[in-house]
Amino acid sequence: MRQQSALSYLEPLETRTRGVAVLDALADMVERSGLKIGDRLPPEVSLAATLGVGRSTIREALNRWEGLGIIRRRRGDGTYLSARVQTSRGLVPTMVRLEGEALLRLMEIRRTLENDVVRKATIAATPDQRRQISLLCDALLVEVDAGRPWRKADHAFHGAIYDASGNPMYGQILANLDRALERGGASPFGADDFGLASFPIHRDLADAVMAGDPDRAVATVNAMLDIVEDEVRAIIGEGKLS
């Protein structure tokens, strides 16, 4: 069986590492053994015994992968690969690249939702909502320009756009998407400066909503997402997709 032969690509770890060493070893096993999307991984107990670590350590590593959408678990059946896994060959750590690839998959879904919600909000917003969106954008850019924590202001700005769409489910779904992707403590994708290059055109988005111009609003939100995606690809060592 392929999952049994995969174990031959693992060796006991020199230390009982709960972090990168286990994750790197699993990624190396998947790549070298030729496991494909849809294939089942070896059981947790076998992985733990082969690596010489506790089962809880393996479960913690697999939880991390599940949070990145790399695996899916079927109760009573096993753990299956749901995304491509390749180890890094350059300077980028394997887990950083896997996080980046997961983030790009997540942003593909986010782009579809953001396009729809921004168009609806631009058309449906009341005059008071348009003014509030503009004021919240001003407040956001003040925090960013001052180098202060900006996430709360960012959530408030985008939340006002979601509310203006008239469908509260948009905000709930997009918030859940943000929480769905598990990032490591030292992840560059959780750093305060990640995505900052997209903030100047937040003003363009607010102005498009104020003007009631849905096409301009959608084009602006796509430009914002393009900037962030390019930053992700730069971090993980990929070029722009053609």
Protein model, in words:
The chain has 242 residues and is mainly alpha-helical. Helix content is 62%, strand content 3%. The protein contains ten helices and two strands. The chain has helices spanning 2-6, 20-33, 44-51, 55-67, 94-124, 127-145, 151-164, 168-180, 202-211, 214-236; strands at residues 71-74, 78-81. A two-stranded antiparallel sheet has the order 1-2. A hairpin with a 3-residue loop joins β1 and β2. α5 packs parallel to α9 (202-211), α6 runs antiparallel to α9 (202-211) and α9 packs antiparallel against α10. The protein is elongated. 28% of the residues are buried. The model has no long low-confidence stretch (mean pLDDT 89).
The largest β sheet comes out as: 2 strands, antiparallel
Number of strands: 2
Provide the helix percentage.
Answer: 55-70%
Based on CA atoms alone, the radius of gyration comes out at: 21 Å
The separation of the N and C termini measures 38 Å
The percent range for strand residues is under 5%
- Overall mean pLDDT stands at 89
Structural class: mainly alpha
Shape type: elongated
- Total helices: the number is 10
**In sequence order, what are the helices and strands, one letter per element?**
HHHHEEHHHHHH
Which strand order spans the largest sheet, edge to edge or round the barrel? 1-2
- Low-confidence stretches at least 5 residues in length (pLDDT < 50)? none
Summary keywords:
single chain; 242 residues; mainly alpha; two-stranded antiparallel ribbon; 2 strands; elongated
